[in-house]
Amino acid sequence: MWYIDKRIQVICDELNRLITVKTIPFDSISYKEGLFFYPDQADKEGGEWKEFYPKTMKWYGPDRYYWFRTDYTVPQEFDGKALRLHVKTQIDEWEDAKNPQFLLFVNG
Questions:
Q1: Which residues are paired to 68 by β-bridges?
Q2: Which of 30, 88, 92, 103 measures 20 to 30 Å from 55, CA to CA?
Q3: How far is CA 31 from CA 49, 85, 93, 96, 98, in A?
Q4: Average pLDDT of 74-89?
Q5: Among 27, 24, 39, which residue's Cα sits nearest to residue 83?
Q6: Among the listed ranges 33-37, 43-47, 95-99, which one has the minimum average pLDDT value?
Q7: What is the Cα Rg of the chain in Å?
Q8: Whether the Cβ atoms of residue 67 and residue 34 lie closer than 8 Å to each other
């Protein structure tokens, strides 16, 4: 079959489009720079939490540690449905030496 790879890509693109029913960006994100191991440690130690603007601010760098937080209440319409958090690293290449690692804490 000719162009089977292109047909498969079209199907994958369509499935990818259909998997996300609704996208809701966070209203407010705060950040703090520092090497902390747990959320309560980040709250108690170090400097203040600052407003983070993802469209204009950068947050990566070698041996740099950042904590981000936001408050979000899941709307009633999503009750019982799968949720997904999409985080962009601001770096196009995917290489361990360049992209950060993440831990996610929910409800503490």
A1: 31
A2: 103
A3: 5, 17, 24, 23, 20
A4: 82
A5: 24
A6: 95-99
A7: 18
A8: yes
Strands 66-69 vs 50-52: parallel, antiparallel or unpaired: unpaired
Round to whole Å and give the CA distance between 18 and 53. Answer: 28
Does the pLDDT value for residue 97 go beyond 60?
no
The total of other beta-carbon atoms located within 10 Å of residue 69's CB is: 15
Task: Look up tokens 């079209």; give the residue.
Answer: 10
The long-range contacts involving 86-94, CB below 8 angstroms and separated by at least 24 positions, are 88/54, 89/60, 90/58, 90/59, 90/60, 91/60
Which pLDDT belongs to residue 41? 92
pTM equals: 0.68
Q: Is the CB of residue 74 less than 8 Å from the CB of residue 55?
A: no
pLDDT of residue 46: 77
Chain-centroid distance of CA 17 in Å reads 19
Q: Is 107 helix (H, G, I), strand (E, B) or coil?
A: coil
